[in-house]
Amino acid sequence: MKKLITLFAIIFAVNISFGQKYDSFGEKIKPNGAISTTDLAKKAIEKGTVDAKVTGVVESVCQVKGCWMKVKMEDGKTMRVTFKDYGFFVPKDIAGKTIVFEGNAKTKTTSVDELRHYAEDAGKSKEEIAKITEPKTELAFEANGVLVPKN
Predict the structure, then answer these.
(1) I need a labelling partner for 6 at 20 to 30 A (CA). Which of 48, 112, 135, 149 fits?
(2) Torsion of CA 49, 139, 52, 122, to 10 degrees
(3) How many CA atoms lie within 13 A of 62 on its CB side?
(4) Rounded to an integer, what distance in angstroms lies between the CA atom of residue 105 and that of residue 122?
């Protein structure tokens, strides 16, 4: 009996160590080979547009549908991640989780109207939305697949 319990304990420990489980959204992707947001930013500056698999921490998610998220960058800024063809959404409660996502990054200028729309989706007040008066140029990412760790 002790051997059987020990065997189950070992199998359980190995499964936790090597078998990180993910919920998958969009296209099926694998977690291996992901680069950091810092490496992504460097490649995007060099090439203008980059196809990549990236890992990063979610700062916030659209609270209306889960139709976009912001991922923290190493420099303290954030990168908006949208989903290819508006074809899938992510859970609205994943802020703080380290995720893996794959797709295309590029520098994008977002209009005032679009920034205000995003602020509205994020639940910002009318006063905060009214303060948005200039377009913003930033790194943007269109993901075709996202992995969120199960907890």
Answers:
(1) 149
(2) -140
(3) 20
(4) 22
Using DSSP bridges, classify how beta strands 78-83 and 136-149 pair: parallel, antiparallel or unpaired: parallel
End-to-end CA distance of the chain: 30
Query: Is CATH 2.60.120.10 the classification given to domain 25-149?
Result: no
pLDDT above 70: percentage of residues in the chain: 87
Average pLDDT for residues 66-84, to the nearest whole number?
Answer: 92
Which tens digits make up the pLDDT trace of 91-136?
A: 999 999 999 999 999 988 889 999 999 898 888 899 999 999 999 8
Q: Report CA-CA distances (Å) from 63 to 118, 119, 121.
A: 10, 10, 6
Residue type, 36: S
Exposure string for 64-94, b = 16+ CB within 10 A, e = fewer: eebbbbbbbbeeeebbbbbbeeeebbbeeeb
Amino acid 4: pLDDT: 37
What six digits make up the tokens of 90? 């992510």
